[in-house]
Amino acid sequence: MSDGPASVGALLRAAPPDRLPEVTAQHLRDRYPVARTEILLGDLAMTGLWPVLDPEGPAGGPLEQRCFGSQQPVVDGRPDGTARVLVPLTVWGDRLGVLRVETAQPAGPDLTAELSGLAGELAMALRTADRDTDRYHLVRRRQRLTMAAELQWDLLPGRSLSGERFRLAGGLEPAYAVYGDHYDWAVTGDRLTLTVLNGHGDGIEATLLTAVAVNAMRNARRSGAGIVEQAELASDAVWSRYGGNAHAATLLLEIDLTDGGVEAVDAGSPRAMIAHDGDIRPVTLEQQLPLGMFGDTRYETQKFQLQPGDRLLVASDGVHAAAPGGRVPYGQTALITALRRTRLQPPPEAVQTVIRGLRDYHDGLDADDDAVLVCLDWLRQPA
Q1: What angle do CA 329, 378, 192 make, to 5 degrees?
Q2: Does this UniProt record's set of keywords contain Hydrolase (predicted)?
Q3: Which of 52, 68, 81, 278 falls between 20 and 30 A from 272, CA-CA?
Q4: Burial of 354 (0-12, 13-18, 19+ CB in 10 A)
């Protein structure tokens, strides 16, 4: 059998979904002078990296966090000639965690490159295996989810996504008790569709409402419909189910990745902002009716333009309207301050910075609403 990432990919495809870590560790022992292997996964709230092979072992430390944040390998050479190599576990820009390998010899560029390739195969396998085993879910959860949060996390597309011309990330707060807020995205060819949704109400009823709206929009999108038809089908579905007693405030965006043109349907409270070189300005759109408020609602698109290097941020009202203890809403000043701190951070880090700022703004008070934030960097026009 051949060596390298191709062979480990074949091994992982043949392995049971819950045994991927052990298969990887055995492959590394057979191929390299490896003393120890560990796979660390990020938790739902992105507060740490947690071990899979030895669940009682320590969480990832500063070096693991540096590897995860930078998305670059980290090599920790030691005086005795051994080394610790850390490589990110990432698939299509979705950051899963870190692979840590302790070797009995110095780690050169060739070994680091081979481990990076292997980590890519493992990340793809882990993401696929999530549908058939609970093992990795158990590692990522540091506390029990509410039923509403369970449904929401299964409905999400992922936490980040990247391509040649964009970087994208989303976050939910509180991670273990979110209910009505949601984001969705899909990239097909030169078109990126992005939606941010704030379902009416709270608890599991808000989540069920969101599930109806999101799946209706997906159904339309996957039939080739544009965002107007997506909004109208979702509105009709919500109205049919709830008769106007519940609705879903939603912002639908379709971004042309070739020229940065954006078509939008603003059907409610999520707000968009554009940041560029430290300057942050709101995207002004004419607000239309939330999905499902009335029967046979019709929608129109509006347009705005992204420039190369622009950062587009979309926040639900749980972010921009948060006013814990009667304070000034977070969106008036504190959100802009938090966004300015993210200028040099990639979208996944930027999202977490703003969410941490939102937690700090509540200063121990329970949030009145859940929150979602999505961050998109449009990198450049095609050559």
Answers
A1: 90
A2: yes
A3: 68
A4: buried
